[in-house]
């Protein structure tokens, strides 16, 4: 959660102040710089929204999963830009950013695995394999049908 909030804050400051790190300016085209900065904002907002989701639990996890995929991508982009521009001089910062990217992707794997098991559990607890657990069967009475539940006299 802290990394998502930090990404949101950093992205907002980068866009608001129209400032970019030197390594990003040197290593990325202008359009990619903008996508990178806005990506920090989007991943932060989406991730925090997924964590605080009040609806279906699996939906919140799915939103968080998407945000963490994006966070891993934007932090990985920055780590690559650091190494390309500064080389070994950016070892500490580059490795830290790489660790954030890897941790984000690791959490994505955990969430995806949990969602997979949750979906299988829902299907099994429903009693019928292959039927969606959120579907409801509503009998439709037909005139002269063999199962007349309307109480025809």
How does this structure look, described?
The chain is an all-alpha fold. The protein has one domain (2-125). The chain is built from five helices and no strands. The protein starts with a helix and ends in a 28-residue tail after the last helix. The model is unreliable at 148-153 (pLDDT under 50).
Tell me briefly what this model is.
The protein is mostly helical and 153 residues long.
Output the keywords.
mainly alpha, 153 residues, 71% helix
What share of residues are in beta strands?
Answer: under 5%
Mean pLDDT: 83
> Could you tell me how far the N terminus lies from the C terminus, measured between alpha carbons in angstroms?
63 Å
Structural domain count: 1
Give me the secondary-structure topology:
Blueprint: H1 2-16, H2 22-27, H3 30-51, H4 57-86, H5 91-125
Helix pairs in contact: 1-3, 3-4, 4-5
